[in-house]
Design goal:
475 residues, alpha+beta, Beta-Lactamase, Heat Shock Protein 90, 3 domains, 48% helix
């Protein structure tokens, strides 16, 4: 029986990596954060502007009342030295709110030097209006606590009559003032929230539409990878069209490299086989112990050369981008060939496949792996060989895989013999023709595709070989 060399599992180039955070998510998140910050700052700025405008309008009303008070208190008398102004008790009835007790509208007249109150509105009903001094300023405005604990907006103005200075203060409750500002702030907040939601939706749509060419590029690249297309569609926006051009150039370069590698492998094989054949023929013709030794070593060299040439060819083919094939036609063709080769033994080869399965690789590789396994089973089977193909989901890597299970009713192998059979070039039975590389090539090629080859006992009584390979998908 032929045997194999099973290399240690190498790195799987197709193993999935954890995806990074979505590019669309990043763009939407950053734009949403900046929009939210900008709208919040805009809202604060608008409310601040409205508050300042409201304060100026409020102060303008208070200034009107101050001017009315001043005009009502000043009396002009004509004298020898000209007209002189004197201060009298104001009779201000321009606004009835100054006459209603605790109405929220108040005025006072006091000395600038000692802050003694000379006159006050009837609305104060004896409660003082504790206003701060204005220093040397002619006027000032601010908020104080008025009668009853209400907040008061007070405007003060200094006037001078002769050598005496007076301060006239007019104040009004700010309840309505702040209510207007709060209402304006609420409306601004609601409006900006709606604007923000609209902006986020617009940003999301813009990102989705803007990144749609990348989705087309991904779909086109996937079609090439699955063998459905040979080139990537270059009809893309000018920002990413060069990327498609470079990818197409990479695909062409990859195929050229593979073709050169195949040509080199073929030339090397022909260049080495001819001298080895000459050496072997000369040794057989010469006879004798030395000739037998030379013939033996030439056979070993031929086996090693064949093995490494196969590995080189397989490694080159594994790098081809965008190739795949259906498993059913390839395996069915192999089984028909084996039926003809082993028709004298009366071997019955059964074939069963679950649905349509595509091998993610070249049909030549699948043909070589399947052919070696089926041929090996037919060599040792008594009368029956079973070939089953089924999909397999690998939860460890989240990859689509499939298995080819080949069983025979031959003598089989013990556990120790199966361990021995995985050594390259070892033949457990020298009476059966072969180089001992069949299963080794299968294992090597499967490993290059990220698959495995396992040997076990079969329910038919012989050997069970399970080949696991990557699939594009099952239908």
């Amino acid at each position: 029986m032929t045997s194999e060399a099973s290399p240690g599992p190498g790195p799987d180039p197709d193993s999935p990596r954890r995806p990074q955070r979505s590019l669309a998510g990043r763009l939407v998140f950053v734009a949403a954060v900046w929009s939210t910050v900008a709208l919040a700052l805009a809202g604060i700025f608008l409310v601040s502007l409205y508050q300042r405008a409201s304060e100026r309008a409020f102060d303008a009303q208070l200034e009107i009342h101050i001017n009315a008070l001043i005009s009502g208190m000043l009396e002009t008398e004509a004298g020898a030295d000209g007209a002189t102004a004197t201060l009298s008790a104001p009779d201000y009835s321009g606004d009835p709110r100054f006459s209603l007790p605790l109405s929220g509208w108040y005025w006072t007249v006091r000395h600038a030097e000692n802050a003694d109150i000379l006159y006050a509105s009837k609305s104060l009903v004896g409660d003082p209006l504790n206003v701060p001094g204005i220093g040397r300023n002619d006027s000032s405005a601010g908020f104080i606590s008025g009668p009853g604990g209400d907040e008061i907006r007070v405007l003060q103005q200094r006037i001078s009559i002769g050598d005496t200075s007076y301060i006239i203060a007019v104040g009004a409750a700010t309840a309505g003032f702040w209510t207007d500002i709060y209402e304006f702030g609420r409306m601004v907040t609601l409006t900006l929230c709606l604007v923000g939601l609209g902006l986020i939706l617009a940003i999301f749509l813009q990102v989705r539409i803007g990144l749609k060419p990348l989705a087309r590029l991904r779909a086109s690249l996937s079609a090439v990878r699955q063998g459905e297309a040979e080139r990537i569609d270059e009809a893309l926006p000018r920002e990413i069209a060069p990327l498609a051009v470079e990818l197409n150039a990479l695909i062409v370069s990859n195929r050229e490299i593979v073709e050169r590698a195949r040509t080199h492998v073929g030339n090397l094989a022909h260049g080495l086989k001819t001298p080895l054949s000459v050496i072997s023929n000369e040794a057989r013709a010469a006879g004798g112990p030395l000739a037998e030794k030379v013939s033996e070593q030439a056979a070993i060299m031929s086996t090693q050369i064949q093995h490494h040439l196969e590995r080189a060819r397989m490694a080159a083919q594994r790098r081809v981008i965008g190739v795949s094939c259906e498993t059913q036609p390839v395996l069915a063709r192999l089984i028909r060939a084996m039926d003809k080769i082993y028709q004298d033994k009366g071997i019955s080869v059964g074939f069963e496949q679950s649905g349509e399965i595509r091998f993610r690789g070249e049909s030549q590789d699948l043909e070589e792996m399947g052919g070696n396994l089926i041929d090996n089973a037919c060599k040792w089977a008594a009368s029956r060989v079973s070939v089953k193909v089924a999909p397999l989901s690998d939860p460890a890597t989240n990859r689509d895989m499939f298995t080819i299970i080949v069983e025979d009713d031959g003598p089989g192998l013990t556990r120790e013999e199966r361990a021995e059979a995985v050594k390259r070039g070892r033949r457990l039975d020298e009476t059966v023709p072969g180089t001992g590389l069949g299963l080794s090539i299968v294992a090597d090629l499967a490993a290059l595709y990220g698959g495995t080859l396992e040997l076990d006992g079969s329910a038919l009584g012989g050997l069970k070989a399970t080949l696991t390979l990557p699939a594009l998908g099952q239908v």
